[in-house]
Amino acid sequence: MESRLRAMKEDLAAPISSRRSSFMAWEAKKNTVLVSHGRPPWYGEDGQRLTDAFVIGIAGGSGSGKTHVARQIVSALGNIPSIVVLSQDSFYKRHTPEEIELAFASLFDFDHPDSIDMPLFAQCLSDLKQCKQTNVPVYSFAEHQRLDETKYLYGASVIIAEGIMALQDPALRSLYDLKIFVQCDSDLMLARRLSRDVKERGRDVEGILGQYLRYVKPSYDNFVHPTSAHADIIVPGMNNTVAIELITTHVKRQMEGRAHHFRQKLATPRIHLPAVAAKFEDFKLDVLKMTPQLQGIFTIIRDANTSKQDFIFFVDRLSTILVEHAMAHLPYEPATVMTPIGTLAHGSAVDAKNVCGVLIQRSGGALERGFRRVLNDVPVGSLLVQSDSSSGEPLMLQVKLPTYVRNRNTAKDTFVFLLDAQIGTGAAAFMAIRILLDHGVPQDHIIFVCFLVARDGGVLVIRRAFPGVKIVCAAVDDNMEEGWLDDPNSEALGRKFWLMQPGMGQIGDRYYL
Length: 513
What we know:
It is a single chain. The protein is an alpha/beta fold. The protein has two domains: 2-12 and 21-256, Rossmann fold (3-Layer(aba) Sandwich); 263-333 and 349-501 and 508-512, Rossmann fold, CATH 3.40.50.2020. The protein has helices at 2-12, 19-27, 66-77, 97-104, 118-129, 170-173, 186-200, 205-224, 241-256, 263-267, 269-272, 292-302, 308-326, 368-374, 403-406, 408-411, 427-438, 459-465, 507-512, and strands spanning 32-35, 54-60, 82-87, 134-140, 145-153, 158-162, 178-183, 233-236, 286-287, 332-338, 344-350, 354-361, 380-387, 394-400, 414-419, 422-423, 446-454, 470-477, 479-485, 495-501. The strands form five sheets. Strands 9, 12, 13, 14, 15, 16, 17 and 18 form an eight-stranded mixed sheet that branches. The protein has a six-stranded mixed sheet with strand order 1-3-6-2-7-8, sandwiched between helices. The termini are far apart. Belongs to the uridine kinase family.
């Protein structure tokens, strides 16, 4: 054994081949969301979560090929909406100065279960499984210490958790839908570990070998390999194409069974959802009073012949009026100020820890200028929600939320102005509200601001599912016209769509193009 170790040491002291570049590219993708074509709804028309994310746990010895197996699964899954790869390496505990000193001398045991913050690992994984956001710690191998920063993760339909102890803790195992153990020859695992630590973590070969014999090998024998008994499938560390095909076929079948389609119900709730039988007036929307000024603005922006310059000007004016009106839904407290002439004046001030805006792109962007005119010192984020080209269901394509919302500790104290041009079927609005709730924003802290609402459209379902959300709009249109988008590659009818009447047309296109 010692002679083989010496031979490996001499070989690995030489430069490593170009295969490192592809591995490094994958390393950069750990603890991140890999998005393909967008995530469809994970909830029902009552607003409640219907399914959890599908979680895969991958364990195996150091250098067994866990990351490579995860990469193969991601590649083979193809058009699965979004995938999170969660690495156990991020969950090493914080170290004392004495422990860091031992770590730099290769005398600290990083391969014992006690070195991993298992409760935090399980909590982050549980949050992602429940379709909530989480903030994963960041660990520096160069400094042998957990950093103060965290990595924000949200929106996965499939989660892959990988690490040597991924199957060791019962709390973790209870979260997995599929448990995998990667089996590999011990000599090959050592060779891979040497390659990685020398070139990627700046370690010397002598220290790596000493640490391997002192900690890594005993840990594998005592803690890691015994967890293979918990695995649903044992995958070879190389030449494992058949195993990967079996795994991905199973995952795809599971995802197909979790698809939800209810946009038709949102568009025509009185037909498909008999429980939504109340009068529109009973849903207590905050609709602006139709003054002659407001009527004049709507006449201009509804007119198809209005110039782009005039359209933008009056849309900005209307959005400013709307946001000013919506400000009444923020909490206020008494405030006293000193006037320029030295007299006290009694008034009020906003009593909210955090306030921000979130645009539903792209038509929601038409409200941004008006929003910033009223609230010029608050952060503004965005959500990109678009309709699937085949089903018409909403797809979550991108989430860029302010820091207030990304952290659950501050999200609970944050008031969010959710901005979109209109609520027709309400599919995008429904998804956007659900995203904010997943982040811990209370319903009564969400103020939805829009130009138009369809009287018998999705707003009825939204108000029933989320009664605490305030909806502020400038006008209500009575009708929605049903139509079909032609598929140029088929003689059959294409995807169904609904247009509000009289409406304002495609507001995003008119504003930006």
